[in-house]
Specification:
Elements lengths: L7 H59 L2 H10 L21
Length: 99
């Protein structure tokens, strides 16, 4: 049986081709894993944004309920001991006849 001898040039070309293929496959796999990882991060951030929007809506509702006139008046009377002004405390200004 006779074996064919390969020249150094053929061996180097074969090794370089194999290394190039391995490099391309490694880059492709890295790119795919990065894409998947970013997809997971995007999904997590979108979930967080949705939960924050929901929380903002709840807080807006709570704010609206706390700022009703009856609630504000009750708080002013009970916690701050405020009362309605007396007639002599009210000052009326006539802005229409000012020079």
């Amino acid at each position: 049986m006779v074996r064919k001898k390969y020249s150094k040039k053929e061996i180097l070309l074969t090794v370089a081709s194999i290394m190039a293929i391995i490099l391309i496959l490694t880059f492709y796999l890295w790119h795919q894993t990065q894409s998947i990882r970013l997809g997971y991060q995007i999904r997590d951030l979108e979930d967080k944004v949705a939960s924050l929007k929901k929380e903002v809506n709840q807080l807006e509702t709570q704010k609206s309920s706390l700022l009703t006139l009856k609630k504000v008046e009750k708080t002013a009377k009970e916690k701050l001991n405020l009362r309605k002004p007396q007639k002599e405390q009210i000052i009326f200004e006539d802005f229409q006849n000012r020079p």
